[in-house]
Amino acid sequence: MSEMKNQSSFGGRLYRGEVSIDFVGRRKQWYLVSLALFIISLGAFFFQGMKLGIEFSGGTVLTVTSGQADAANARETVSQLPFIEGLIVQELGTDKVQIRTDSLEPGELTEIQDVLASRYAINVESIDVQSIGPSWGEEITRKGITGLVAFFIIVMIYLAMTFEPKMAFAAFIALFHDVFITVGIYALIGFEVTPATLIGFLTILAYSLYDTVVVFDKVRENTKNITQVARQTYSQAANLAVNQTLIRSINTSIVALLPIASLLFVGAGLLGAGTLKDVALVLFTGMIIGTFSSLFIATPVLAGLKEREPAMIALAKRVNSRGGNEQENTSVSQRQQPKRKKNR
């Protein structure tokens, strides 16, 4: 059998504590990475800003279907009209072009329809028109923010009741981390914010929360009666929990990211399905950031909070006075057992 077979799988060795990645002990390094992402996101948000879709800012959207339609000639045709403001033109597939402007008066809308119908030799009735007032956009924005705040409140209450307040606070930090950085990356790339974008944000928050809860459940299991056993400090037990759930988190993230990557890079990028790119970008970015936060942010923050408790300070002194983590000594003896059997 190969050496890998003899030593068992890497995931099994992580679970048993025979090998370990120091997630909690190196928390300052992960915090620096997050700080760098925060600075980039903050700069993108304030200097570039969010590109709001028509559902939020209001305006008029005209969709022209023609084999001759392309963004360049549509922009040239419409920009000649004196009342056009806030013009945005983009191609949808190979035979459609979408023209967005600020809100138009009925007479202005009729004029732009006539110009487009004449340019592409099509009927005016075939031009799809969608007009949204700014008040409707404000209502959508308000409902989106309300939904996000309600989500955070419900999550905090649930985690505080299911686990403990410090776990709820650590999970909140991780969720805020995910939202802020995902919003910053979204602003940096410059995609429009649509209702689908909000749905994507709520989806990645649920995914990130699920991953964090899985880790916290293992932390709770490892730290049960920890002050009585006194074999590990809280940070050591929490770090073991992250290692024990590491392979599961990575596998779950990869499986979830594959179809989303197909939507973003194949559907939106290669096939030109522009309606998919907003939600696909949010999901793709948010799931990566969410996996990072559940491993590198949530548990280290929790360990830092717990290590300040008097009981955990006393526990750390007892563990250190006994020569450190007994888990490591147990793992060493386990690794030596096959050698003793072989010498018999």
Automatic annotation (TrEMBL):
Any one GO cellular component localisation term in the record: plasma membrane
Chain segments annotated as transmembrane: 30-47, 144-161, 168-189, 195-216, 254-273, 279-303
Membrane topology: Multi-pass membrane protein
Chain intervals with Polar residues compositional bias: 322-336
Keyword Glycosyltransferase recorded: no
InterPro entries per the UniProt record, alphabetical: SecD/SecF_arch_bac, SecD/SecF_bac, SecD/SecF_CS, SecD_SecF_C, SecD_SecF_C_bact, SecF_bac
Main localization, broad class: membrane
Residues covered by the Protein export membrane protein SecD/SecF C-terminal domain: 118-307
Keywords in alphabetical order: Cell membrane, Membrane, Protein transport, Translocation, Transmembrane, Transmembrane helix, Transport
BP term (GO), one: intracellular protein transport
Record Pfam families: Sec_GG, SecD_SecF_C
GO molecular function: protein-transporting ATPase activity
Localization per Swiss-Prot or TrEMBL: Cell membrane
Region named Disordered: 319-344
Name listed for the protein in its UniProt record: Protein translocase subunit SecF
Record organism: freshwater metagenome
